[in-house]
Design a protein that fits this description.
single chain; alpha/beta; eight-stranded parallel beta barrel; two-stranded antiparallel ribbon; 11 helices; 15 strands; globular
């Protein structure tokens, strides 16, 4: 088994120590996964397969409600960490979210990872009659929410007056099991969101940039662009960078003996408009596909080596996979466990 090479030197000449790998599975409780009734079994399976955490997204469509689901998983699982990837800030007031998050952390014995984002699916806001602010306002609201959550989740009294939220004399309760508070994860792909995450988050989910209508830009899925996003975080975080864990999610996993042929097939599919949620704004090479952090083609050993290379080049170490590929990826965890 190959060991990871040393990370490339950043502009400031400082090498960040490589963190051990962690692995996140996830689920929505939709029909493709067997529905809400099988949702708990899915999380229990993730625990059995050796995943470190189980994450729930936050959408108003065909999925379980993440807060209620986390409460159920808190008592139905034993060791796996539980979290959200990620909650839409505009759906909940931060004072209410702090109460729910603290409760889940207590019920789970200190296993919560709270993921929060600015919200991006306008269609859901419109259907629910919730105001969908322009990006700058959504980011302002997210920053205020992060400050409020940081105080309340420490069990402290919060007195806060911002442009969008006002909290007066409210003390966080119950006191979470984790200290000083449960870790907060913020996801982002654009420079402003990454800089905000670098200021407040314990975990940052590094995602490809997206278009105004929510499509992922193909150009943002390359290893080169991912390194650029990590450098934005590094510069914005300063000395905090060493304390931040970096996460990414592999969107497609294909176990094959011919990874080059699979890369060629992927390029052909993109030319034909599949998948529809990707904006093909550049022409990628086979090498671009095979080195992308967000695509994994090959044998289990080749996929493990690819993930080692991603960590070596970017220092990202917290790997997420989508629900339908949780079992397919499990043998890779066995190859990387303890590294």
């Amino acid at each position: 088994m190959c060991s990871a090479q040393a990370p490339d030197l950043p502009a400031d000449g400082q090498i960040r120590a490589l963190r051990p790998f962690r692995f996140a599975a996830g689920g929505e409780g939709n029909a493709e996964e067997g529905g809400a009734r099988k949702f708990i079994k899915l999380a229990q399976l993730a625990e059995e397969l050796g995943y470190d955490s189980f994450m729930i997204p936050d959408h108003l469509g065909n999925q379980v409600g993440p807060i209620a689901a986390l409460g159920a998983l808190a008592v139905a699982t034993e060791k796996i960490r539980l979290g959200t990837a990620v909650l839409a800030n505009g759906f909940r007031h931060p004072a209410i979210l702090a109460k729910d998050a603290a409760t889940i952390d207590v019920l789970s014995g200190g296993r919560l990872e709270l993921g929060l984002g600015a919200g991006w699916m306008r269609d859901e806001y419109d259907k629910a009659g919730i105001t969908y602010d322009r990006p700058g306002i959504r980011i302002e609201k997210l920053e205020e929410s992060l400050q409020i959550l940081d105080t309340l989740l420490r069990g402290k009294e919060c007195n806060f007056e911002g442009k969008h939220f006002k909290i007066t004399g409210l003390k966080g309760s119950p006191r979470p099991r984790q200290g000083p508070r449960p870790p907060i994860c913020v996801g982002g792909g654009g420079p402003r969101m990454l800089a905000l995450a670098a200021k407040y988050a314990d975990i940052i989910s590094v995602v490809p940039s997206s278009t105004k209508d929510g499509k992922l830009r193909l150009s943002g899925m390359t290893l080169e662009k991912t390194i650029e996003r990590v450098e934005i975080i590094r510069e914005a975080a300063g000395e905090r960078f060493e304390e931040i864990e970096l996460n990414w999610a592999i969107t497609t996993i294909v176990v094959t003996d011919d990874r080059e042929q699979m890369a060629e097939m992927a390029l052909a599919a993109l030319d034909n408009g599949y998948p529809p949620n990707v904006d093909v704004d550049v022409k990628l090479s086979i090498e671009d596909i095979l080195t992308s952090p967000y695509l994994a083609f090959g044998t289990y050993e080749e996929i493990a080596d690819q993930i080692r290379n991603v960590r070596a080049k970017t220092t990202m170490s917290y790997v997420g996979v989508f629900p339908t590929q949780m079992e397919a990826f499990a043998p890779v965890i066995e190859l990387l466990k303890g590294e």
